[in-house]
């Protein structure tokens, strides 16, 4: 009897101790999960059904990667993975999902690569190559240029079968083309900047520009993105007759192109502009930037909303060089600085984070180095500054190879306000936000991150827009409606057909 | 006059606002720096001079990388960078620096590759290959084996000039050899495990084993490491006459080999053992492990101090499978679990972190996924659990390519107790701790991290050892003496010669 009691006592003790273990473990895990971005999103019944369906798709694809890591798409280079991503059911789900706004995209690289390439087929486009630099420009007759022989692209194409391939290779970083792989970040950036220069002279022909803007917004709209904030520096538009527009006139033309698109697409909320000239300049140019943005904002107070500086941070000038000048930007213009788009810890580019925050930035472009700075992270959370994460850009521009190592994972785990964006989709043959959302969901976030995260990311992209509060409420309301319609349809399809997005 | 007053007023306001900016910036940066690992180390006058010298070396090498990233050694694969690292003045400084203890190394891969390869020249070593697996074993006459033809390595070498190269290729992951590069983490781990099996049968011949242990400790001692905790599972040692020793006898032999080395090297504090068998087992084997470590600890209470499970976590069994069994390990045996040596976020291997902490681990092996878990990070800091970081291992075993993206950067920025270790130096032709310290200092930590970090890392490697408190105090005292001697000599050399470590 004594023995039996001892045995029962021991069993009870043992079970309790084990029971404690598992309950403590559950509480640990749930504490952890409660901090994750999106954890406070409440899903309704339909959303829960859709989520369950989505997570089955995710687990199946994710776990296949866990078993055979070389097949896991976010670990591979986007140039090799793109076509497979397009076949992923999870990607198809994301493509159909209303994703809110595209807050980080540069005006010369917004369009899909094919969209841009189509422009090279327009008539009157001339080309010349000088010092290994391709220039493309619309003109009625070839300009007389002692350094460079201008020819019609149409004629070049006809005369040489390989011209098309070569021309393609000059307009993208994609290693399918002869440029191949890149030695390091400086080399890829140098090619990147060269392409920008080539494209700029082609897309600033006024009729093409209008069509380019229209097409770029259409691609977003088709990708179920309803709002855009475009970074650019208002390059001077031109006409075939030699007219060159002033910056103000160019702004008016852009504004008109956006309006034209909105007239045709009532579900698209609109686009706004962030004046974002190059960072490698002297003080007097910086001063000119500030005057320009203040003036442009006065002219278009509802359209030109923000200021930023662009170009490779490691090679450009750091923010701290321009503090006094930047402090004279009108308080009505929001600062949305690129900062720490770098993996050099403790350098001038890394320290751009400090100045961006001190200058009062509303969002941070990339902030790849942010997680190395715990004190700044705390400040950024307090100030509710959003981080614009562009996963594919960071991979192609060689900050990180395997996207599972992207530092945004730590920001997601800590519930930081993140928005997902596409940066320069043209140059890596991406299109819209879906590819970057896919990387975030499959590669960067936890296996367990679900529809709550996706919903939060979409919502964030409107919450952290530069729109005035009243407009923000309106756009979020509109997005919510689209979201509910999407969920309704998905829910019905799941119930009726069982299998969709396959 | 009014205008002048306004002007002066505005100037004063402007200067003050700018002054505020810079003082706020300084306070931000210093708050950030105060959290960095090593920031609380106080350098004395001599250390400050040495530090200044060291930082000149560091800045010069680091900034060259910033200008030409493809040359930056911690960004390149260790196999390509090793020879250049050996020429780095910073590396030479680190090599001369007393580095404390090596807390994470596996017994079959402790030696430099050349050290191991020398063993293949010992007489009586036989080889046979079966199913693409090489086996090496010492025997007087070739065993009769229907599946595999045993031959003397000496004869094979003589008969075939390319045999040496081939044999080398079977004992290392280094891509200088025909194995080339690896498709993914599973492939590199599979080769890695295969090499372990090949090496094991060679080094368990008792006289070779004794010499192997002696040599492994000598290499540490030469690298100015004074203490080691070795993970292993006491493979059964054997004699040429067919004797096979029991686990207990093998433990005694190992213990003796360590003692022999200590007798000859008074500056070397000693080595301790962590019983660390393979994790992919069923419950009854796990039970046997626990009995074994409890028994071995009873026999060698001052030598066998810890328990761990090894092998690829993604492919092995997770800790949570063995909770009840592991809870019966003697409280006198410290747990030092591998956990989250993975970049799969939210998976069973990632979740090993939760169980390691709940089981009461004293240190965490790798913890590569830790930074994705903010709640766990807080717990780990509260409980003062150290993280064993092995940078080169993580790169070669394909968790991260560019070491600037290693998550330990975030742990350093947050002052987590880190120790640097070498894991399996043989298989990537590393030697001692200097290479891993170099990666930590140059590649993972901030450009501004200095001698304070190095000193802290060395000290941590003793503070977080499994030694009892009294011994710990003794070894730290001994290390302090060595450290001061190192600083004295460095200081004198800097004053007298100006240029050292070049």
UniProtKB/TrEMBL annotation, chains A, B:
Q: Which residues form the Adenosine deaminase domain?
A: 186-478
The top EC class is hydrolase
What are the boundaries of the signal sequence?
A: 1-19
Q: Provide the family line.
A: Belongs to the metallo-dependent hydrolases superfamily. Adenosine and AMP deaminases family. ADGF subfamily.
Which UniProt keywords are present, listed alphabetically? Hydrolase, Metal-binding, Secreted, Signal
What protein name is recorded for this chain?
A: Adenosine deaminase
Q: Which Pfam families match?
A: A_deaminase (PF00962), A_deaminase_N (PF08451)
Which GO CC terms are listed, alphabetically?
extracellular space
UniProt-annotated location(s): Secreted
Query: Which ranges carry the Adenosine/AMP deaminase N-terminal domain?
Result: 17-94
Q: Tell me which Gene Ontology terms the entry assigns under biological process.
A: adenosine catabolic process; inosine biosynthetic process
Its catalytic activity?
adenosine + H2O + H(+) = inosine + NH4(+)
**Molecular functions per Gene Ontology:** adenosine deaminase activity; metal ion binding
């Amino acid at each position: 009897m004594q023995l039996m009691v001892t045995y029962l006592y021991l069993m009870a003790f043992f079970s309790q101790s084990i029971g404690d273990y598992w309950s403590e473990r559950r509480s640990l895990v749930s504490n952890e999960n409660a901090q994750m971005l999106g954890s406070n999103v409440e899903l309704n019944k339909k959303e829960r059904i859709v989520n369950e369906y989505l997570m089955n798709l995710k687990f199946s694809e994710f776990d296949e990667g866990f078993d055979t890591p070389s097949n896991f798409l976010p670990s591979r280079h986007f140039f090799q993975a793109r076509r497979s991503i397009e076949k992923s059911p999870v990607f198809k789900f994301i493509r159909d999902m209303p994703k809110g706004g595209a807050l980080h995209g540069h005006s010369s690289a917004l369009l899909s690569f094919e969209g841009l390439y189509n422009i090279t087929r327009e008539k009157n486009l001339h080309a010349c190559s000088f010092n290994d630099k391709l220039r493309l420009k619309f003109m009625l007759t070839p300009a007389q240029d002692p350094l460079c022989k201008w020819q019609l692209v149409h004629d070049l194409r006809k005369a040489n079968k390989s011209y098309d391939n070569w021309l393609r290779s000059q307009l993208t970083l994609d290693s399918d083309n002869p440029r191949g792989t890149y030695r390091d970040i400086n080399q890829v950036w140098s090619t990147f900047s060269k392409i920008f220069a080539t494209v700029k002279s082609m897309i600033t022909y006024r009729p093409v520009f209008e069509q380019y803007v229209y097409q770029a917004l259409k691609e977003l709209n088709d990708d179920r993105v309803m709002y855009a904030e475009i970074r650019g520096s208002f390059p001077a538009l031109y006409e075939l007759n030699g007219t060159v527009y002033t910056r103000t006139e160019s702004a008016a033309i852009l504004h008109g192109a956006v309006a034209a698109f909105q007239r045709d697409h009532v579900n698209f909320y609109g686009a706004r502009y962030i004046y974002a000239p190059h960072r490698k300049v002297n003080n007097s140019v910086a001063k000119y930037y500030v005057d320009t943005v203040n003036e442009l904002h006065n002219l278009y107070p509802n359209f030109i909303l923000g200021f930023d500086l662009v170009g490779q941070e490691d090679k450009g000038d750091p923010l701290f060089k321009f503090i006094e000048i930047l402090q004279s930007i009108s308080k009505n213009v929001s600062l949305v600085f690129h900062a720490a788009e770098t993996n050099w810890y403790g350098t001038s580019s890394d320290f751009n984070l400090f100045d961006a925050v001190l200058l009062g930035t509303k969002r941070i472009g990339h902030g790849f180095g942010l997680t190395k700075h715990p004190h700044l992270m705390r400040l950024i959370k307090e100030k509710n500054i959003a981080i614009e994460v562009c996963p594919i850009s960071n991979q192609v521009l060689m900050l990180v190879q395997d996207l599972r190592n992207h530092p945004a994972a730590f920001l997601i785990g800590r519930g930081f306000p993140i928005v997902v964006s596409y940066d320069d989709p043209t140059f890596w043959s991406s299109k819209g936000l879906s590819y970057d959302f896919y990387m975030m969901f499959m590669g960067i976030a936890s296996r367990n991150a679900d529809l709550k995260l996706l919903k939060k990311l979409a919502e964030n992209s409107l919450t952290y827009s530069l729109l005035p509060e009243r407009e923000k409420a309106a756009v979020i309301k509109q997005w919510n409606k689209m979201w509910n319609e999407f969920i309704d349809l998905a829910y019905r399809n799941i119930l009726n057909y069982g299998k969709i997005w396959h």
